[in-house]
Specification:
The chain has one domain. It is built from four helices and no strands. It is mostly helical. Helices cover 43% and strands 0% of the residues.
Length: 74
């Protein structure tokens, strides 16, 4: 099934830690960035999460409770 057949029939989920506002700089080429964003953003439902990472909150507690056997020595 090509892209045209999928249009408005299937869903695509894209996740990123980089906000959309930073994509132009990351991609580097303005024309290509515009083309990519036009195709991704058109008819999209965007959900932007705010706040601290749940992974960081969980890992912070784990990292403070490690014992010496878990420490890597190069």
């Amino acid at each position: 099934m090509d892209t045209e057949e999928r249009y408005q029939r299937r869903s695509t989920i894209i996740t990123a830690q980089l906000p959309v506002s930073g994509w132009h700089q990351m991609i580097g080429e303005a024309t290509i960035a515009d083309a990519i964003l036009d195709r991704i953003i058109h008819n999209a439902h965007r959900i932007e999460l705010k706040g601290d990472s749940m992974r960081r909150k969980t890992n912070k507690a784990i990292l403070t409770q490690t014992d010496d056997s878990e420490t890597l020595n190069p």
